[in-house]
Amino acid sequence: MSRHLFTRTMFLAAAFLMVFAVSPVWAEGDEGLYDPVPPEGSIFVRFIHAQADITSEIIPEINGRERDGARFGAVKPYGVTDNGKVEVGFGKYKGEFEAEADGYYSVILQDGKLRFEQDPSPKDALKAQIIFYNLTGRDDISLRTADGKITVAGPLDAGAMQDRAINPIKVSFAVFVGDEKFADLNDWPLERGESYTIAVMEDTQGKGVTAYERARTSEE
Questions:
Q1: What pLDDT does 55 receive?
Q2: How do residues 5-30 score in pLDDT, each as one tens digit?
Q3: Domain spans of the chain?
Q4: To which H or E segment does residue 12 belong?
């Protein structure tokens, strides 16, 4: 090998090693409902503020740790905590529940009390998951395409929840009561393997309020 070719080869090898050294450690990341890899056996807890007559911001709390405040209509990101008995607070409202390892849970403030729901985990990595909550006092709530022609989830009775796996496409949704449009939703480009929550609520005037969020963990 010529001296020139040897020198050039050693330079390229050194450059490759430098690039590799400063690259992120991919094994430390993960996809789906959380960004960093949580400790094994962790659980994921989030808060949904569906109490229309409380207009001020209230503070959620998981096992004594406060999170960022929430106003009516908010669906908070999941917070990571240990499995077993979980003590939660949402302003003056307190409660506790038993949580299974690797489970996803929603703490919902509605009708002057806390309600605990275990959220379904995604089942199909090739599709997008939608978790649809009817947090109104109305029955016959459904999620449809914005033109009302295709029903995606529901109809649901008051307080019910349903999850659906759908193809990852860009589509506009709206919420209907029967065949009457109740609320529009912002557009989200649905991505493969991601989970999205659509929570339908009702303000004190009977107007529809919706939250449409991609599931993620809190950075707090």
A1: 87
A2: 334 444 334 433 333 333 333 333 33
A3: 43-214
A4: helix 3-22
Please name the residue that has the structure tokens 């890899």.
37
Q: What DSSP assignment string belongs to 97-163?
A: EEE-TT-EEEEEEETTEEEEEEEPPP--TTSEEEEEEE-SS-SSEEEEETTS-SEEEEEE-TT-EEE
Contacts of 57-61 with C-beta under 8 Å, sequence gap 24+, read 58/90, 58/91, 58/109, 59/89, 59/90, 59/91, 60/88, 60/89, 60/90, 60/107, 61/88, 61/89, 61/90
CB 141 within 8 A of CB 200: yes
**Does 31 score more than 60 pLDDT?**
no
